[in-house]
Amino acid sequence: MGQGSETLSGMAEMAEDRCFLIDQMIQDYQDAKKLTGSIVCPVCGRKFRKKTKGHVFCSNKGPANCKDTFWNLTDETRRKRAKEWT
Ligand SMILES: [Zn+2]
Q: Per-domain residue ranges for the chain?
């Protein structure tokens, strides 16, 4: 309940699709946080071995690294939703 997913138009469908992917990414991120050993990076899908408990992304340094990409995408979605939901 409450999780409407009606398709209104092609544009809405695309936006919905993007949100879905980001939702999936957030879900993968939360799963990855709980796992140990080898995990799949929630952003790029690359498999790597966790070094620390909080280690979730395959890269967190340099330009266009997965950690920054993840937070940029999720922040944008959260901002947009916060606006829609008020
Ligand atoms: Zn990655």
A: 10-85
Nearest-angstrom CA–CA distance, 23 and 34: 17
State the distance from the centre of ligand 1 to the C-alpha of 62, rounded, in angstroms. 12
pTM of the full structure: 0.68
Interatomic CA distance for residues 37 and 52, integer angstroms? 9
Model confidence pLDDT, tens digit, residues 16-29:
777 778 889 999 99
Q: Compute the distance between CA of residue 66 and CA of residue 42 in angstroms, rounded to an integer.
A: 8
Residue with tokens 């544009």, as numbered in its chain: 11
Instruction: Please give the distance, rounded to the nearest whole angstrom, from the Cα atom of residue 10 to the centre of ligand 1.
Output: 30
